[in-house]
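Reopening closed ticket. The problem is back. First fold of the pair:
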Amino acid sequence: MRLVGFGCSFTYGSELYDPEIGTEFHHANTRYRESNVWLGQLATMIGATWDNRAEPSNSNYAIQYQFTDWFNNSRNSAEQVVVCVGWTSPERMSWLGDKWYHSGYIGTGTEPMYKQSHRDWILNGTDKTQALHTETAKLFVNSVCKLHDIPLLQFNALGNHKPTNYDNYFIDGMVMENMLKSAQASNSKLDLIASGGHPNEAGHEYFTIRLHDFAKERII
């Protein structure tokens, strides 16, 4: 079995750094990051492999197209897969140039292209239909997976989302970020959040244990 994951930094594994490597060697840290983010932890729990296609600052608009790219170009119909999506904040926006650019990076990105993207952000990032992009993305991914009998496991990682009627939704109405903050606030012994606001290793483990129970009951 293979878990194919889509999402933002909460699925990518931002702020998960191998202590023996440190924060400066980004690509050398990939295996550690992907092993300790919820997707990798869940795969390990059920004896599966994983394919992590998440991007930091990703939007739901981009997730829809990244899923489409996987489905059309990388999916092996003979392979047993479970699609896993950690939906992000609905207000985020992305646009496609030579690669995906995300509104969350505007003003903070160090690459020259981010500075050149301000015009694209003005044209695309303030679109008042952004909330509709999220509903369309969810409908599209759910419809394609249902049509092709692909198990789908999904939840809200960040942001305010409208309730859904999908029975494959883990704690519909709850957001991963808020779950961890609430758990940490109610128990001083818990340390679940890294300095930059992303889940740390323990935070991903806390979430994955609960996600695993749901997945075993409903999805896998």
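Second fold of the pair, where the issue appears:
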Amino acid sequence: MTTAVIQALATGLPAITTDHSGFPDQIHNGKNGFMVPEGDWKALAEKIIFYIDHPETWPSFSAYGRQLMVEKYDSKPLIDRQVNLYKRIIERSPVTQQF
């Protein structure tokens, strides 16, 4: 999966992507962007035209997308989760239980 969608959303850009790979986890259809079926160029064109015709939706799409990415990918919670995972692994390790 590319990080382009995550980076776009994190900077407040609404996105249009396909329902391929990990994108469904990033795009909440109609809230921070749109997902279209892979290979469906008509659906893609419709969503591009929607953005052009409805610029008033950009601020809410942008805010929602940015908030979602901050919640999912902010480095502090990610680091905390990683440290907690390591602690659990170390606590269960047979090597540390010998000491």
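Update: turned out to be a display glitch only; the data is intact. The two ends are 42 Å apart (CA to CA). Strands lie at 15-18, 33-36. Please close again.
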